Amino acid sequence: MPSSEFQLIEHHFSRLGATREDVLLGVGDDCALLQVPPGKVLAVSLDTLVEGVHFLPGVDPEALGHKALAVNLSDLAAMGAEPAWATLALTLPRIDEAWIEAFCRGFAQLANRYRVQLVGGDTTRGPRAISVQVHGFVEAGQALRRDGAGIGDLVYVSGTLGDAGLALRAAAGEYDPGPHLIDIQLRLDRPQPRVEQALALRHLASAAIDLSDGLLADLGHICQRSGCGARLELPSIPLSPALDQFIRERGDWGVPLASGDDYELCLVVPRDRQAEFERVAAGLETPLRRVGEIEAEPGIRCFDAAGNPLRVGRGGYDHFGQA
Ligand code: ADP
Ligand code: MG
Q1: Which residue's C-alpha comes closest to atom 8 of ligand 1?
Q2: What is the dihedral of CA 152, 138, 19, 89, to 10 degrees?
Q3: Pick from 22, 173, 195, 305: most CB atoms within 10 A?
């Protein structure tokens, strides 16, 4: 059992995830030495999870290890970048071997799946917080930026929306999802980054974002950057059986459209690539659904099955926003 910080790092972090040839020097020195493939650019993203803000005290550390990496891989996917390396800053109130072991297990499982190697980090004492930075590769011209959407382009989302948000409502005792609880809890605890989808479709999209704050807010970011607006057809929004039941009972579209933590992809696709996009998407494990269209008028407008406009609560979750 490791006794010093040095041994702790050596034991838990020095061989975590895949072993990659482009890592010239990994954990253990002052810096990692990393080789970016010729012709590619580095896509870099960082996300922090803080106890009491992003996760509850006592949450399963293995799920946390998964989620800390998953939310970052989701950002790489949204850029159309192929994952390669990660660094990890871990702040812990005390050295708890079992906790670190389980955290690393969750992290490693996902890292191995996407051939990500942990190449460095920092370990400090303090209130529990986890920062993961990921690094991936993309051809400069192929990166999926937020500012590429054009008027008339079509809007697609992957998977289903609102499951994680509903799980939070259930945890707060505001809604009883009955037998669906297990499924939506899994969506909250173990989000699956849509890496394969992004890599298969990136050459066909004009803009992309991952859904961390809800479709209204995140599509809103694309629209703002691209200088346009969008319309959404609510009957087309992909819903799980849990959300389908929730909408039928409560009619509250705020959950699928304005709650966070979905980590699905939102892709914008020019019409002349629609057929090819839908052909490639049909062969993927997690389907994508067309939910709307980019329009010239700023703002996002929602329409129900009868074509009537519908007001949906304020867009997404904003850490510094007014309650
Ligand atoms: P320094 O004092 O030079 O910052 P540290 O003692 O913080 O060195 O870290 C020693 C080595 O261990 C470095 O290579 C660092 O990247 C790595 N490291 C420390 N903590 C972690 C961690 N949580 N995950 C991965 N690597 C880590
Ligand atoms: Mg350090």
Answers
A1: 30
A2: -80
A3: 195
Q: Which residues pair with 57 in a beta bridge?
A: none
Comparing 48-57, 64-73, 173-182, the range with the smallest average pLDDT is 48-57
> Counting Cβ atoms within 10 Å, is residue 224 exposed (0-12), middle (13-18) or buried (19+)?
middle
Within 10 Å of residue 94's Cβ, how many Cβ atoms? 7
Q: 156 pairs with which residues across the strands?
A: 267, 290
CA angle 224, 78, 237 (to 5 degrees): 75
- In this structure, the residue with its CA closest to atom 24 of ligand 1 is 121
Burial of 183 (0-12, 13-18, 19+ CB in 10 A): middle
Of all protein residues, the one whose alpha carbon is nearest to atom 7 of ligand 1 is 122
Where is 133: in which H helix or E strand?
strand 129-139
| pLDDT value of residue 6 | 84
Q: Which of 133, 65, 135, 66 is nearest to 100 (CA)?
A: 65
CA 210 – CA 197 distance, rounded (Å): 12
pLDDT at residue 321 greater than cutoff 60 = no
**Is 4's C-beta closer than 6 angstroms to any atom of ligand 1?**
no
pLDDT number for residue 2: 55
Structural tokens at position 13 = 């972090």
pTM of the model: 0.94
Cα 121 to chain centroid distance, Å, stands at 21
